Amino acid sequence: MMARFDRLPALPLIANDPYFSIWLAADRLTDADSTHWAGAVKPLKGKIIVDGCEYRFLGLGEAPAAEAAGQYVTPTSTIAEFTAGGVFLSVRFTTPALPEDPDTLSAPVTIIDFALSSADGKEHAAAVRFFADDALAYDGDDKPDMFRKAFVNEGLNMAFTGQLLQKPLSNSADHITIDWGYLIMASEQAVTAEDDGLSFVWEESVPARGIIRAGLYIAYEDIGSINYFGRICKAWHARHGETTAEAVLRFHRNHDALLHDCDILDASVTEEARKIGGEDYAAIAAAAWRHTFAAHKLIATPEGDMAFLSKENDSNGCIGTVDVSYPSVPLFLRFCPELVNAMCRPVLEFACMPVWEFDFAPHDVGRYPYATGQVYAYKGRSKANITYPPFYMYPAGTDSYDFTRQMPVEECGNMLIMMYAAVYFGASDELITRYSDLAEKWVRYLTEFGEDPGEQLCTDDFAGHLAHNINLSAKAVMGVACYARMLELAQDPEAEKWMEKARVMAKSWLERAKAGDHTALTFDGDGWSMKYNLIWDKVLGFELLPEEFYKKECASYIPRINTYGLPLDSRRTYTKSDWELWTACLISDREYFESIVAPIAKYMRETQTRVPFSDWYDTVTGDYQHFIARSVQGGLYMPFIALAK
């Protein structure tokens, strides 16, 4: 049996949050140096010395590369296997993104495990060396003065490195890395603070038979995680005072149990994906799991609630972007619906502030790591590394935003769908109850402007501005239906009236959208597009449109599929992988589903653009267009809620 080699555009090594996110942009761990998702080199180096001969297993260098023997990517782990000088080496990077354990999920700790055994039946003297560069603890090319320290903490060797001058939350932009805090390394083996980073050394005699193991923990103490409307908040795990060093000790005490839980999750998720869509879909699900969680930060608000905040990576750096949260929710609806409430909470809080004077939902709540008020459409918006004004302090009447750059129908529909879907899949209805006035305001906006959106921006407007957008109108219909269901939960007698509005809108939509054997791109009758927003009609059981329509619409997509996928619409050959998977679930047909999934898997395995699994790429060339390591890949889990039995 041949060894398995999983190939991704970039391999996840450390995948905890938008700052602690290190990848290997190559086929093998020895083919490149590790980088932050945004591209800055953040070197992690690995070597094994066998009987005096040195080999590389991670990163570039002068020593010869160990021979790759296998490579596996699971939802929670990246495992690489090597042979070198008669020794077999296994290296496992595990980020325990366990959705039912938010204390573990939110702790910025990655586990790295090593296993050695003889490959030739002989004993060998071996030493494994692992190095993390100081560059993980600062931004830019100019190295600041650093402070390093090594000590023993409850029997665990621990070392850290960080800048001598600490300026927490001192930058805010898109393609940046953290510029404050402390990188931590810990192990039962030797850990030291070197001149330019932290080192781990494990020296052992490898027996002729049997396996020996050792491991280390690499973590990040960020001091303060998010400025949440004027108050500095830490990660959820720290809400009762746990430091990152204490989290490392907790991980060490529970090491075997954590790996067991990760193995159980990996097997369960992979098997479910395989049943839904075969090996191609199982590979996509494995690639998307850590990727999605790592684009978020889970914090405790000052009131002690969860806030799950995304960073809009490689787009504009916004935090808590509504039309980035919306595509990501399938993963969370299936495995941890309360996190969808945690996405909505900051948006709802901001929408109640005096500075937000609009009768529609906001686009975002700031720019990472500042959740201090919407920056998209701010009249003074800049891409520069600046801190935006404290909008949460602004009174009404400050005229801060440009209405023409807002996304009213888009975000109203997104918020109503997310709020109801979270409860439908098991989350608390607390937000629906508390913010019922906002929900009513937003649904009225949809009924007034959503049936035929005029000059409105939407999430797909990177393809160019599009008036009378049929797919955007479909979202409005779904939003109205979700509002009706919210009222039904509250036993409000108005519920049926609003559901009837949704039915009338859906009937009108269908009549006006038809263009022969498919629906058009706009109500002007031009072009075509994926109608991914209709998926909620199926998932939430509204039955607003007939099954015959869905079969006909999906049949029209099949001849339009290119080498690497189904284009977003008729204007360009590029696509969005999240929307492709939503479109693949509009009917329950395995052959149709696999016809859309197979090209996405092919893109993932063949693209020459070496960035973490981009969601926006060309279906002809396989080249990424934009968007790196974004949270929207949680949308690739739509089949788990739309098709799974």
Query: Whole-number radius of gyration?
Result: 25 Å
Helix count from the secondary structure assignment: 15
The CATH architecture of the largest domain can be named as Distorted Sandwich
What class, by secondary structure content?
Answer: alpha+beta
Low-confidence stretches: none
What is the approximate shape? globular
Q: Which percent band covers the strand fraction?
A: 15-25%
Structural domains: how many: 2
Question: Would you state the CATH class of the largest domain?
Answer: Mainly Beta
Biggest β-sheet: strands ordered side by side in the sheet: 6-7-8-9-16-13-12-11
Structure report:
- With 645 residues, this protein is an alpha+beta fold.
- It folds into 2 domains: 13-266, Beta-galactosidase, Chain A, domain 5; 305-553, no CATH class.
- It is 31% helix and 22% strand.
- The strands form 6 sheets. An 8-stranded antiparallel beta sheet has the order 6-7-8-9-16-13-12-11. A 5-stranded antiparallel beta sheet has the order 5-4-10-15-14, with no helix packed on it.
- Strand 17 and strand 18 (231-233) form a beta hairpin.
- Helix 4 (322-335) packs parallel to helix 6, helix 5 (338-351) runs antiparallel to helix 6 (408-424) and helix 6 (408-424) packs across helix 9 (470-489).
- The chain is globular and about 75 Å long.
- The model has no long low-confidence stretch (mean pLDDT 96).
